[in-house]
Structure formats: C-alpha cells, structure tokens
Amino acid sequence: MPPFWSSSPESEKHAVEQHATPSKEDPERILGDISDIEDHEVFKKNADVDFRTVGWPRATFIFLKVIFATGVLSIPLAMFSLGAVGGALSVIGWGALNTYTGVIQGDFRNRHPSSHSIADMAAEVGGPLVKEFVGGLFIIAYVLCTGSGILGVSIGLNALSTHAACTVWWSFLATMVVAFAASVRKFHQIGWLTWAGFISIFIAVFIVVVAVTTRDRPAAAPQTGPYELGYYAIAYPSFAAGMVASCTIFVSSAGTSAFLPVISEMRNPMDYRKALFACMGFVTAAYLSFALVVYRWCGQWVASPSLGSAGKTIKMISYGVGLIGLIVSACLYLHVAAKYCFVRILRNTRHLQENTAVHWVTWLSLTFGLATISFILAEAIPIFNYLIALTGSLCFAPLAIALPGWLWIYDHRLLRRGSLLQQVAFWLHAFLIPLGLFMCVGGTYGVVLVIKQAYASGLIGGAFSCADNSDST
User: What's residue 48's pLDDT?
Assistant: First the structure.
C-alpha cells in the first residue's frame, strides 16, 4: 500500500483533469508500468554472460558490506565532537533519512528499469549534462571510498607488523590486492566475499567494544595521574568540527547509490526493498550501540579507525580479524565505480555480455586504473576520518540527499496540486535539495579547514609518507 502522500491512479487522474491537460504528465507514466520491466533491463537474462543471478538475501549482504565497514570505524570519534546525545540523534536521523532516500532511489529505478546507476536516473530528470555531472560525482565518491579502504588496510598492516615496512609500500600492496579482488565481474561471484568481509569486520568491532569496557582508562590516555576523559552528553563544537562530525556520521550510511547497480543484477529487482530494510535496520542499530559504548569508555581518546582504541594487543587482534573486511569493503567500492564506467562504455554493444577481448581489456583497465587513483588519494589525505568526511560532503550530500528529492518530485510532480497532506509531502521532498547543497558546501568547507589545520599542526606529516599511521611505534 502506498504511503499517504503517494497518489492513487484515480487521484492523480483527477488532478490532471482539474489542473492540466494530459501530456508527458500522464498518471500512468508517473506511476510507471512494470509489466514490461524485463524489456528495459540493462542486463538481459540468459545472455552469454548472465549477470542476473543475485537473490535478495545475497543482495542484503552485499549492501551490508558496502555500508558496514568504514562507517562503524569512524563514528565513535565523531561522537566526541557532537556529544553522546547529539551523536546518537545524528546516527538515528541520518540512518532514517538515508534509508528513505534509498527507497526513493530504488522505487525510481524500478519505475525506470533502464536506469543502471544514479547517473542514469539523473539523465531521466535533468538531461545529459546533469547525467555527466552526477556520474562524475559517483565515480569520485567511490574512488574516495576505495581510498579510505586502502588507507584502513595499510593501517591494519602497520598494526599487525609493528610498522615493519614503509606505509607507502603497505598501501601499494593493499591497492594491488583490492584491484585483483574487484576484477571479478559479477556481484554474485563476490557474494561469498561479502559474507566473510561482513562477519570479520563485525567480530573485529565487537572485540574492541568489549575490550574497551574492561580497561580502567583508555589506552591512549595518560596511564598514571588524573586525566580528562572527554565524555559529554551534549557538546558544543565549532562549525567546522560539527560539520566534519555530521558528514562522517551521514556518509556512514549514505552509500545507497551503490545499491542501484546491484538491483540490475538481481533475479527479481522488486525484492530490493527487502534487502534495503534488512540492511539499514541492522546497520543503524549496530552503529548506535557500538559507537555509544566506545565513546562512553574512550571519550576523546578514541582512535581513528576505532579498532585501535583498546590498546596494542587488542588492536593487533582486531585488525587481524577485521583485515579481510577492510579489503572486501575497498573491493566493493572499486567494483561499483568500475562497473558504472564499464556499463557506460560498453552499453548497447555485444561486448557488454560477451567474453570478447574488448570486454576484458575494458574491465581490467578500469579496475586497475581506478585503484591507482584511489591509492594516490589515500596517500594525499592519510587521516581516516577526514577522508571519510570529505567523501560525505563533496559527493554523497548531492547524491544521497539532493538528487533523491529531485527524483521523487519528478515522479510525483502532480502532488503539488493534490490534497494538503500531499502538498506538504511535496515540499518536504523539495527541501531535500537545499539540505543536500548545504551539507555539500558547509561540509566541504569544514573538512578542508580541518585538513589545512592538520597539515599546519604536523598532525599530517605529508603526502606519501613512510611514517607509521597506526600509532604502533
């Protein structure tokens, strides 16, 4: 049953008869016709290379691994800037909003099944220029996400080896492993990796959460004498610090645009909502509980990523358990970005679903080429939470807030002249557009400011530095 703000065919027809002549705003067009959805799908069933092999349970684990990794490792530090109450409300609020905008994107995609990515949806509502702009943001977003994953893996390798080699070499090794893993062509084929990756990172975080509660004081705090824990119910951050923290929490569950290519590979795309709700419900609950516990016991002394918050021994154990999860996260981010480019280049050609030389050269060039760019970005911004926050403000604020509002308005534009509740719903969705722009501009300003301050203070030693980024030595 549609929500109260969604119009029925009869009410939209009545609105058209009262206020407009039928044209492109025909109610049947707005609602979408799913009877011939298979004719418009990007990937056809029973082709030489059949991409349509993902069921909704496997899609759920793919979604979980896309979302649950870098986010859970960065939220506890954001809690310090916002306080426990502000941080908890932020986790719940952004989780709910990101879930709903994920619903909007999935519903729009299933009304317009030829849309393989968020850029295809942008083309539907804004034309080719908007498509190219959004496509560029999408690539940048997941290249930055891949970079954060590579950075996390390099931190883990430094922690496990007690900085036995230059950090740049660890990052390069991580990049190669991620690129090879991401070169598997189908989401179905990397499904088992998502199970292993999710379970490993979940257990690693759980180990840290339990371990921090057994210590008399945080591992990074002075071990003798008085110290300030830095735990606050309500905090009063500066604008820049508040925006960085908000963007960090927002982006931790904002990767729903990565779900869209997975829909194109699902056996039944209409099962998307099942996977979305299962994923986002679990993720929001886990983020809230894990982050609050770690912040309560570590306060301002929480590490970034948070796996290093319980001392050297637990850090080595947690990274040893969670390393596969960090690798799989980066692999999925890279796969999503490469798959978008791959479909853009080979769409409507026989090479898209045939094992030709063009098919393989294009695919491998994209995975290794984008991995190289991710490696460079990871070395240029070598602080985990800053890289996460920059990704959220610069890319995901337009993709996951502003654009979904536009998509909803496009499919429900007649509701502007509907009942009072429908008009309220219309303008609430329209408000998503300026909200996304505010998060983009304000968040990027805040992140750039704190990165500049980090370089000036020596917190960031420099790009392509061999220094230990795990604080193990």
Answer: 52
Sequence-ordered strand ranges (E) for 429-469: none
Beta carbons of 63 and 263 less than 8 angstroms apart? no
Q: What is the mean pLDDT of the chain?
A: 85
- Contact status, residue 221 vs residue 301, Cβ threshold 8 Å: yes
Q: Decide: 150 and 70 in contact? Cβ < 8 Å.
A: no
The amino acid at 402 = A
Pair 263, 269: CB distance under 8 Å: yes
3-state secondary structure of 433: helix
Sketch out the chain's domains with CATH numbers.
Answer: 9-21+55-457 (1.20.1740.10)
Radius of gyration (Cα) for the chain, nearest Å? 23
Residue 327, both tokens:
């690798």
Model pTM?
0.83
Measured between alpha carbons, how far is 32 from 26 in angstroms, rounded to an integer?
Answer: 10
Report H helices in 53-114: 56-67, 70-111
pLDDT tens-digit readout, 181-204: 999 877 767 767 778 888 999 999
Q: What is the pLDDT of residues 354-376, one digit of tens each?
A: 889 999 999 999 999 999 999 99
